[in-house]
Amino acid sequence: xxxxxIIILCALxxxxxxxxxxxxxxxxxxxxxxxxxxxxxxxxxxxxxxxxVAWYWRVNSAGTARSGATVRMVAGMGLVxxxxxxxSALALAVFSIAGDGDAVNRAHLTVQIxxxxxxxxxxxLLGLSRQRTGNSSQTEVSDE
Length: 144
Known about the structure:
Blueprint: H1 2-25, H2 35-60, H3 68-98, H4 102-135
């Protein structure tokens, strides 16, 4: 339970930092109608990242031995989560700097929706591979 408290505090600190920086960097008079949408998206990215960290800790602290396939799958999901979070945050920053026109904001939302769909599909496929390897009673074959 100690790890859960630490993860929750880190998630809250990160979320507050994101909101604080956004409010300090973008003065009220320069905020577009999409400001809150972008801020909520940034908070969603934080939530996705820290949810994975919590899940990772839960999986690895369960006290049971994990197969090599499960360890690789969890690491793969972590890589996918990090790449999604980083690319989504980068797209958010780039489109925020690019301008405030309606077309720019709609393009940004489109890019984010496509990236999220791709992330979800990859995560689901990795989850299916976890079920397949987790339910398998076969021993792993080495990569020799």
